[in-house]
Structures are given as C-alpha cells and as structure tokens.
Amino acid sequence: MSEQTPPPVNPYAAAPSPLSPSDERLWATLIHVGGIFFGFLVPLVGYLVLKDRGPLVRQHSATALNFQLTVLIGYVASWILMFVLIGFLTYFAVWVYSIVFAIIAAIAANKGEGYKYPLAIPFIN
Questions:
Q1: Mean pLDDT of successive 10-residue segments in the chain (125 residues)?
Q2: Which of 64, 73, 92, 102 has the highest count of CB atoms within 10 angstroms of its CB?
C-alpha cells in the first residue's frame, strides 16, 4: 500500500479581497434579514465566510449571530415554560422581538451604521 501525501500548503496564498463599501452594506443587511427566516444559520455562515472581508460586515455578522443565539435561548426557555402556559406568551414576545429588532438592524446595516441589539448576549466579538 502506498501512502498518499497531502498536497503542499501554499503559505503565499492571497488573503481574501476586501469587499467594496456597498457590498459590505448589502451582505450585512442580508445577514440580518436572513436571521429572521433561518435563525442563527445565516449569521453563522456570514460570520465564518465574510468576517475577514471588511470591518462593517464583520461587526454586523457577529452582532446578528449573538442576537440569533440569544433568540434561540429565548425560544428554548419559552418552549419549556409552555408546560405552565406562560411560555405561549413568552414565545410570542420573543418572536416579535426577533423580527422587529432584526429589521431595525438591517436598516442600520444598509445605511452603513453600526447597531447593537438590546438584550443580546455577547457570545462573539
């Protein structure tokens, strides 16, 4: 049996090219809006793929990921509380909170401004 050696790693490979300001705003906006429909998956992918492409998209993707993880915790807590009936109310409150503040953050991202979600736990900087 012959062992195959892995291909050599190129230490001189080019770093990802930075995004233009308009592309940064677009991706930051899409990351916030995608969080409404797909939860933490879109911000996670956006953070992992685009974090090195510009400061605006890095800040917004990290902020959106922190927010969506906080919302996920809220949904899990609400699901547990549904056994004592208060969870139905808290689930609705978390749902409204996630939609309203994600839209506000998307608008701020589209303007090229920073945004910090209220009550979001900062898991990622």
A1: 72 80 96 96 96 95 97 97 95 97 98 95 92
A2: 64
